[in-house]
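Quick start: read one record
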Amino acid sequence: MPIKIQSDLPACHTLEKENIFVMTEKRAATQDIRPLKIAIVNLMPTKEVTETQLLRLLGNTPLQIEISLVRMENHESKNTNDAYLDKFYIPSSEIFKQKYDGMIITGAPVEQIPFEDVDYWDELCSIMDYAKKSVYSTLYVCWGSFAGLYHHYKINKQPLERKMSGIFMNQRTVDGEPLLRGFDDTFPIPQSRHTTLKKEDVLACKDLTILAESAEAGVTIIKSKDNREIFMTGHLEYDTLTLAEEYYRDIGKGMNVPLPKNYFPTNNVNRMPTSYWRATAHLFYSNWLNYYVYQATPFNLSSL
């Protein structure tokens, strides 16, 4: 699916080198089709890295996608300058003026803060309420999934004694689920978080279905029974070295963090990790776009 983005977005050059089908605004204007409109609410501090990771997974399938990068208005970014955000992002208030086929709400490094103490919490709640009515399918990732489950279903996050970091194998818990179509019987998902969910809390909610879980990482993929919300506690979008970079960063700050599990060969931090979740990541995002966005959304978004 060619992704329509600004030609000068830094991710554009990276993706073109990887042969990901990127379409600039000029070429998109010549195609007489309605693109899927996807909003990415990017809460991660390293905006450019996360943009590239997600756009890579949304590309290279048959239809055109029009991307809107969304920033929080009530938060001052410490890692991305205002000029970059003004050029490539729309403020959150702009999304309320239109409707989208799909939305992605990313993770954020605020897991150990109570939801209500996050400086943009009220703003995010407004976005999540808007998505419930005006977005056909919303994908909540890592902290975003905890935020969505808390806001919509009153399921609270549970603190972990130590950070969960590494690659953990998962098993599907339902048969015939389109989101997991083509997946192996067990499949890897990178995790990087300080919180978890109680399975019994999710099971007690009649509007939710657990799709996958891990013996080590707990519940990992959940959906609402109307298919409008997908919650994933991990980071399938992560690059090969993302967990290593996080580990080195935390150790450099003097933090007592565990070595990422199932990641460094022989647990030797001097050996180069390899990705074995990339195929799962591409399949997951392709399935989401195909079965829960493209095949489900109305042609006329005003009917949402």
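The first strand starts at residue 3 and ends at 4.
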